[in-house]
Specification:
Layout (H helix, E strand, L loop, with lengths): L13 E3 L5 H16 L4 E2 L6 E6 L8 H13 L6 E2 L5 E6 L16 E11 L7 E3 L2 E2 L7 E4 L6 E3 L8 E11 L5
Antiparallel strand pairs: 1-9, 2-3, 3-5, 4-11, 5-11, 6-9, 6-11, 7-8, 7-10
Length: 180
């Protein structure tokens, strides 16, 4: 399993290979597929072929494993002083063929930094790669990438083919002093 580390700096991306086990991966991927096929994910207004749903602890349709993985991701980066990111929260994102995340930055309160820890559950055969601050990031299924979306513009390459891109996205706010 992965070792403890610290948050990346404001202009870095940390990638943790095989953050989730093969068993965790399959369980979360099955759940994500069910969420999509049962219509629980809603269209994302920022682009065609994009779907998502935000979750909060206690949501009945979310497996305990989701929250276990979330807690493990936060603790892996030695973060103890944080709060849940209130706008985007934790979410499951799905891009289907042609879907792409547009280039953007995410907001945060003036005294906080927004941290995102994303886990690639399903990667299309082509496309679907995160691009952060103009650099394509090499991630595979089961990998986690962590960065400051307020400080670094981010986007993704378009999904090519029928295989969906599923990403679990974990959002927290940390005091600006932590990332200084």
């Amino acid at each position: 399993m992965s070792t403890t580390r610290h948050l990346p700096t404001l202009n870095e991306v940390a990638v943790v290979r095989e953050f989730i086990s093969a068993h965790e991966h399959q369980s979360l991927l099955d759940w994500a597929g069910e969420q999509f096929s049962e219509g629980h994910l809603i269209p994302n207004s920022f682009g065609k072929h994009r779907f998502f749903k935000r979750y909060e602890e206690g949501d009945a349709e979310v497996p305990d494993l989701f929250w276990h993985v979330r807690r493990r991701a936060v603790s892996m980066f030695s973060v103890t002083d944080y709060q849940d990111e209130p706008g985007f929260k934790c979410f499951l994102g799905c891009n289907t063929e042609g879907g792409t995340v547009q280039r953007h930055t995410d907001p945060s309160p003036p005294d906080k930094h927004h941290v995102r820890m994303n886990i690639m559950l399903s990667k299309p055969l082509s496309g679907g790669c995160p691009i952060i601050d103009g650099t394509e990031i090499d991630v595979a299924e089961r990998d986690l990438w962590c960065f400051f979306p307020t400080a670094m513009p981010h986007e993704s390459t378009p999904v090519v083919g029928k295989r969906r891109r599923f990403v679990v996205s974990i959002g927290i706010l940390v005091p600006k002093a932590i990332a200084a």
